[in-house]
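Hey team,

Filing this mostly as a record. A colleague (T.K.) asked me to run one chain through the structure pipeline before their review meeting, and I want the input and output archived in the tracker in case anyone asks later how it was produced. No errors, nothing strange. Just documentation.

Input sequence:
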Amino acid sequence: MQRDGNLANIGDACESLANGDCLGPIQAESRTSVLPLEVPLEDTDGSDADDVIVTDVHTNKPDIFTEREQKKAKKKVKEQREHEIKASEDRLLGDDIPRSEDEFEKSVRCSPNSSFVWIKYMAFMLSQDEVQKARSIAERALSTINIREEGEKLNIWVAYINLENEYGKPPEEAVMKIFQRALQICDPKKLHLALLGMYERTEQHKLADELLEKMTKKFKKSCKVWLRRVQNVLKQGKDEVQAVVNRAALSLPRNKHIKFLSQAAILEFKCGEPNRGRSLFEGMLKEYPKRTDLWSIYLDQEFRIGDKDVIRALFERATCLSLPPKKMKFIFKKYLEYEKSLGGEGQVEYVKRKAMEFVENSVA
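Output structure:
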């Protein structure tokens, strides 16, 4: 990447704390649309991955929504969070957006614990080609923000790391220097994930691979870390997924196996080889054939592929299970909704008859 292009990328990313683009005059954008120096906060939070399955392996009791319902609930929470953040930031800056050093000084005095304001200040200095001043502002922010505000401090460290990735001399050493300092204070897993996110977005694949190797040893019981390893392998098109899955199975606690394997299977469907994803699901269902949550997630992945014959064959297998009425009702309802979405009255009637037969046989 060329220097000018990198400058543009860092500037807009500095613009806020949630999604970012380039340098320039500071605009009234919320952190929900811009990220701090290209490291999204999603990489540093405590969530494990999309479509997480949480169930009790021993009781076989589903404790999840279907994937579609999960996404809907997740989207609602995200929208609410973004609304709250924007409202908070609007209160911080109001209609009077800082456009000078003095105005930013006033803003950080009014909101000393807001990483949002500090990072905007850093972005402003970068837009003026004042890299050293941007560093000084990062240092001030770290010493000013209350020690209890761990998330706000983490945001500053993330922005600082990204700044050094662009302007450090040499960048790799400068980044590690800040990273090692941050490790003394921040949650180590979140910080490692933030650094990994930066390496991946700036296409520093060798450094990302080296970091992931360290992370899978340091956080070997973390489902999220192993899933990031799987995701990284898939993105680079490497034929190493099975090896990673095998290593993870040996390292993760048994109560995390289903969670990891189901997520790895979902990743295969999304950005790898669907057949490998099917193999993972089939292996889990062989061991836990009565797990309706697994059947549901498996079906959701097949919905993405859209092969009607495969989907119907999977539904037929699921509806032949000997499960409690409540669980069978869930499967039949999903089957019926699928056929209704296709608009075939014959198939809809077929599913209804099949469901009635199950009810009659259960009563008998």
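Quick notes for T.K.: The mean pLDDT is 82. The longest strand covers residues 55-56.
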